[in-house]
Amino acid sequence: MNEPAAGPEFRNPELPVARRVADLLGRLTQEEKIGLLHQYQAPVERLGLRAFRTGTEALHGVAWHGPATVFPQALGLATTWDPDLVRRVGEAVGDEVTAFHHKDPEAVGLNVWAPVVNPLRDPRWGRNEEGYSEDPWLTGVMGAAYARGLAGDHDVLRTAPTLKHFLAYNNETDRCVSSSNVPPRVLHEYELAPFRPAIESGAAVAVMPSYNLVNGRPAHLSPLIRSWLRRLNEDVLVVSDAYAPGNLVDPQGYHDDLPAAYAHAIRAGLDSFTQDDDDPKATLAHIRTALDRGLLSEADVDAAVRHVLTVRVRLGEFDPGRPYDGITHDVVNSPEHRSLAREAARRSITLLKNDGILPLREPETVAVIGPLADVLFEDWYSGTLPYAVTARAGLAERCATVYCEGVDRVALRVDGGYLSASGDPAGGPLWIGQDRHGFDLLDWGGGAFALRAAANGRHLAVDGDGLVVNDQPGPAGWEVRQTFRIEERPRGVALRNISTGHYVALREGAVRTAEDADAAAVFTIEVIEHGAARAAEVAAGADVAIVVVGDHPLVNGRETEDRTDLRLPGRQEALVRAVHEANPSTVLVVSSGYPYAVTWADEHLPAIVWSAHGGQEYGNALAAVLFGDADPGGRLTQTWYRSAAHLPDLFDYDIIAADATYLYYRGRPLYPFGHGLSYTGFAYRDLSLSHDSLDPGEALTVSVTVTNTGGREGEEVVQFYTHQRNSRVKQPLRRLRAFRKVRLAPGESRTVSATVVVADLAFWDVTRGRFVIEEAAHTLMAGRSAGDIRLTARFHVRGERIPPRDLLGRPLDAAAFDEYDGVVPCEAGAETGDAVRSVQPGAWIAFRDADLGADDAGPASCALAVSSTEGGVITLRAGDPLAGEVIGTVTVPPTPSRHVFVETRARVTPARGSRDLYVVFESEGIAVSTLEFRR
């Protein structure tokens, strides 16, 4: 091919992206195309294409590549309720990614795997810290802001942000084999909604599917990738999560072999395989096999490669130069980024309770106490801290402090002596000796403890040979081999390493682990120093005690591990109580990636402060808020419950039926969504609406006047919620529609306005499979939180009325039910189609207000598409699932597999008028995909 003087079209930045991609695609051989379908993309030297890799972790800083600015966790960023600040943090992280890329382009790619936009449905989720909010709209706002910062506003992308994790991913327990079962309303109104803003606006250009199944089908094979995601943006790149493609065969068992699995994934819309680390050979071989078998076409490969190349073209890889070429490593942890990290940390700090003790008024001495008082932790996706300003360090800059960690120091006695540890800074294997050695016992909750040797300050761990050593700075790594469970035995306790599941034993003349519980060494715990008692002594001599507690981000709540409850770790709770008893002027500071049920503290302590792990500047930010340099600006983006007993099952994704999240929860939370106090007070008045009645295409302007009623400047987050007062379906009790952040001087008043677009009031109508705006009255609420509504007003929307279900108009999708009991959504086919499957006899699905017609005009028969390996019976009833009128009975024949659906028919007894139709499954294991009523 003779090229024009200007070179090939794919290198011409003046041309449209699609034309450049088409030109480059046309130059590639099939083998070269296949080489682009792995995370580590092969170079194409004859065209001057360099190697390219997806996947740089950048959730709240550049991760895994050495020291970089560490900003507050994503949850903390959202707690600022400041999308512009979140965008600026994204910009800073994007610049640092670029700097690392310039330094080592092969190790650090420009496709970043952030942000996480899964709504935080359940605070026990191990990855709670990675998300933004339990509210889908607020999650979408914050996710889009961070993605926009990463991507930049130039035509050429700074980085290529990837939204995680598509879809309905909110549990770590059994995450690769569990199915997140979401009815249509939950799917469209809650789980999909946070992905829309960043994709639709172009802020994010890629998406990563999740490990779990959704309604019975692996997320990596979801038809929604093509039918929903690519309807928003046809060029979106879809990258797999690590090792998820291989899971399609084992453990998910969805396909018999990898060529079939990989072919299905590509057909479903997957473009890039994150599989087998940096060695793509096996993955590419399976794709070639799929092509040879006819499971894939060249057009399928072309479609995937087109998405890959679109991102590379948009990153400016083939341009003469990029707007970001001047970014050097000097930007990493620069003074500007350190200042931004401090600002973000300060504005994320949330005041949960205050009886007037805060801000601190020039105390002579402050006791700084607790296991998190003098340490900062890195989480799995944070960067490496370039420095760490702890709570103790930050407070010490402001006043005289005394410090006590408040943990127990113990000795572990066993027959023959004591567990002993090396004093060498590098540590070494433990042994049994005659001298009593001390170990600090750190309680991280959920039965997880860490042991730190007093001899050298290093944590105990189990090495690869099973030896117990004291050579670790703390819990770390993917496996976290530094934590133990303490199991009671008749004559003492046994130590069980959580990662390996093996017991600390005395074998072969050494302290090493054994798989057999009977081989465990039995220790007697001797307390050398009671941490809570010592902390109480320290607190008693100070003017104020600051107790800093919380979680370790790698223990009892992290990727691969959910929490089981919401309580503070037992020894931390005991510490708080002991310090408060010694000094009533005790402030509790909680640093954690998720909510805690701090009910006792709320009842007894004068002040409680919370933030997510705040990054390198946490201590300075905390001191600024505690001493009143800044008003606490944080507001909760999750409900804080009083107990895990107030939560549904972790695997229950139907927030509507389960009354979950602030949207539907009817109980009294410990702290409501949106909660956060100021050092001043605010009054609300003069709530006004621009319209009393609106059409679907209009927008409502709402305004309210807010006054600072206190004696100091303060910052308020004015929150606007709506509630639909009458509806065919169950509506949220309240739903956030807008918010405004305002800073007011003492006595100052300001009128705050926001817009509520009527189209956003739509909900998913299961009867017709689309969003609908109903004819209804609504309440507009303005206040400080979802639980502190100050003013309300009413307006009316002139929408449509949902008619009775027309049973004769078209086939009825079984998954489009109104209510259900004892069924789960499932897949009707391996690649498309939805169904419901009974999991118990007597299960049912209900279709409300179904038009059964008159005697001479109603349905005479019903054809059901059914599947059941055992066969069974389905009963159609009107009015009630148990005692309602039987209008039809269907015998379900056995079918070869769950994906084979057959048609079976039943005569329908006439039942006049609009009735509630119940499909009752008389036995378990029956699936129905459609019902078609016929005259």
From TrEMBL:
GO BP terms, alphabetized: arabinan catabolic process; xylan catabolic process
Domain of life: Bacteria
GO function terms (MF aspect): alpha-L-arabinofuranosidase activity; beta-glucosidase activity; carbohydrate binding; xylan 1,4-beta-xylosidase activity
Keywords: Hydrolase, Signal
Stored Gene3D superfamilies: 2.60.120.380, Galactose-binding domain-like, Glycoside hydrolase family 3 C-terminal domain, Glycoside hydrolase, family 3, N-terminal domain, Immunoglobulins
A Pfam family annotated for this UniProt entry: CBM_6
CBM6 domain segment(s): 810-934
Chain's role: Catalyzes the hydrolysis of a non-reducing terminal alpha-L-arabinopyranosidic linkage in ginsenoside Rb2 (alpha-L-arabinopyranosyl-(1->6)-alpha-D-glucopyranosyl) to release alpha-D-glucopyranosyl (Rd). It is not able to hydrolyze alpha-L-arabinofuranosyl-(1->6)-alpha-D-glucopyranosyl (Rc).
Alphabetical list of PANTHER family matching this protein: BETA-D-XYLOSIDASE 5-RELATED, SUGAR HYDROLASE-RELATED
Family membership noted in the UniProt record: Belongs to the glycosyl hydrolase 3 family.
The protein, known as: Exo-alpha-(1->6)-L-arabinopyranosidase
Protein source organism: Microbispora oryzae
